Amino acid sequence: MTWEQKREKSYSYLNRYKDKISSSTYFYIKQTIGSHAIEDMFLSEDEIYNLICLGQGKITTDSLIAKYIHNAKAS
């Protein structure tokens, strides 16, 4: 899969939620996807969903970090 295809896949995940989030949250996450893609890092659907939840205030940065630490220890 090419770099562009991977980036577009991440964008497609985001577009699933486009009508459920504010335009500013959508723009912020789209920019984040693009910035990560430049570094050859591509966000999964779960990671994009987490960014959406952060943007909507449903979770905090601290709780998200704790989730990732917990998952890393379980692996």
Strand-helix topology:
Blueprint: H1 3-15, H2 23-38, H3 45-55, H4 61-74
Describe this structure in words.
α1 packs antiparallel against α2. It is built from 4 helices and no strands. It is an all-alpha fold and 75 residues long. The protein has one domain. The protein is globular, with a radius of gyration of 13 Å. The chain starts with a helix and ends with a helix.
> Mean pLDDT score, rounded?
92
Helix/strand order, N-terminal first:
HHHH
Total of helices: 4
Largest sheet: none
Rg, rounded, reads 13 Å
> Judging from the principal axes of the Cα atoms, what is the shape?
globular
Q: Which class of secondary structure composition applies to the elements?
A: mainly alpha
Report the end-to-end length measured between terminal Cα atoms: 26 Å
Query: What proportion strand?
Result: under 5%
Q: List unreliable stretches of 5+ residues.
A: none
DSSP, total strands = 0
Helix content: over 70%
Total domains: 1
Keywords:
mainly alpha; 75 residues
Could you give a short description of this structure?
With 75 residues, the protein is mainly alpha-helical. It is built from 4 helices and no strands.
